[in-house]
Design brief:
- The protein is α+β, with helices and mostly antiparallel strands.
- It has nine helices and eleven strands.
- It has helices at about 5-45, 60-70, 125-130, 165-180, 205-225, 260, 280-285, 290-305, 360-365, and strands spanning about 80-85, 90-95, 145, 155-160, 185-190, 195-205, 235, 250-255, 270, 345, 350-355.
- The strands form four sheets. Strands 7-4-6-5-9 form a five-stranded antiparallel sheet.
- The longest helix is centred in the N-terminal third of the chain and has 43 residues, at about 5-45.
Length: about 375
């Protein structure tokens, strides 16, 4: 039997289509299986009575829990300083040669460029001094952590909120985390006028991937609650995808230092923004996300265009290059929800639109920059 070229082309095309469908089905099943396995492991860990730490636990146990959560660079840590005369304060890498004659070149020489630098590592004694709020010299002792590791990975993601609206914005952000099954812990900042939302990882996660996870949560939150301005959102930690040359990346202050803790700050809060009665018991029950979970969430969000401000190049398996747009960007996801037949508008010094009848996705929609025009 002679098969024509046209029939052979059709057969191959049909076979490739079937293989594509099978591949998509297998990838979807693999994501579900990996996520389910990670959740089961986390549930077993949370239910284990030996995993619980309380306020009555030995100091070494508390410190071990603390270091397992707020984990970053261990070869160097930032220490807070203050100048009573100038009123200035900040953080600098803790160094054994700080202000030593002929060794320390501050302030002319940056710590990262100093040939005589001798950075101090994170130890149990250092964490103890931080939690007690007092150094060996009797002075206030506050440290932070550099979240980005030398290989540009991280063990947690923290979102920083401040200003007057921080409570409303944080509440909406946390609700999105619950919807997405993302475990998150809220800490009131040292000043009491803001909050940090911490997401912990069970293994090292690429910093860029962790930040895409945060951007996805932020995107979903702004669409669910378009009336929130999110003026209070400041930044993520890590604050970069890659390590800046000659530096350590941004730092974040560590929680639970005694002096602000005594004032009800730098502690972890419940849904009513009240401190958990036993901070250690609460922290020991916080679940950590696995790499598989983070990857599954961000991959799906990327495919659907659900990551604000993050544009990823297409993968070889994503689509054929000749079917991609000239910019190699995926089209914006369509706005879902019923649309009103008419919209009330008022022309004044600007164009004012009644948003009450619009679906949230349309309220938060931003056209690509090439499609925006100055209406002035």
């Amino acid at each position: 039997m002679i098969v024509s070229e046209a029939d052979e082309i059709a057969a191959i095309t049909a076979r490739l289509t079937a293989l594509d469908a099978e591949r998509a089905d297998l990838e979807s099943r693999l994501v579900r299986l990996r996520t389910g396995e990670a959740n089961r492991r986390a549930t077993v860990t949370e239910q284990s009575p030996t995993a619980r730490v309380t306020g009555a636990s030995p100091p070494t146990t508390k410190i071990a829990l603390f270091r397992s959560l707020f984990r970053g660079r261990e070869d160097v840590f930032p220490k807070r300083w203050s100048n009573p005369r100038s009123g200035k304060s900040g953080y600098s890498p803790a160094c054994a040669n700080e202000w030593m004659p002929r060794l320390c070149g501050k302030p002319k020489v940056k710590c990262g460029d100093c040939p005589n630098r001798h950075f101090l590592p994170v130890t149990e004694a250092v964490i103890t001094q931080h939690l007690r709020g007092e150094g060996l010299d009797g002075r206030d002792f506050i440290i932070g952590v550099y979240p980005m590791m030398a290989d540009e990975s991280c063990w947690f993601l923290a979102a920083d909120f401040d200003k007057k609206s921080w409570r409303d914005d944080v509440a909406a952000f946390l609700e999105t985390c619950r919807i997405k099954n993302i475990p998150a812990a809220l800490e009131r900042s040292r000043s009491g006028n803001g909050g940090h939302v911490w997401i912990f990882f069970a293994e090292q996660i690429p910093a860029g991937l962790a930040r895409r996870l945060g951007a996805h949560v932020l995107t979903e939150t702004m669409e669910r609650a378009p009336d929130l301005g999110f003026d209070s959102y400041d930044r993520f930690f890590p604050n970069q995808d890659t390590m800046p040359a000659g530096g350590f990346g941004n730092l974040i202050a560590l929680p639970l230092q005694r002096r602000p803790r005594d004032a009800g700050n730098s502690v972890f809060l419940d849904d009513q923004f009240e401190p958990h009665p036993d901070q250690w018991r609460y922290l020991s029950g916080v679940r950590k996300m696995t790499l598989a979970e983070v990857t599954a969430l961000t991959d799906e969000a990327s495919r659907q265009g659900r990551i604000l401000g993050v544009r990823l190049p297409i993968d070889d398996d994503d689509e054929e290059p000749w079917l991609a747009s000239p910019s190699r960007r995926k089209p914006e996801a369509p706005v879902s929800g019923p649309l009103p037949e008419t919209v009330d508008m008022v022309l004044g010094n600007q164009v004012y639109i009644d948003r009450t009848a619009l679906p949230p996705a349309l309220v938060t929609f931003r056209a690509p920059s090439s499609e925006r025009r100055d209406t002035g």
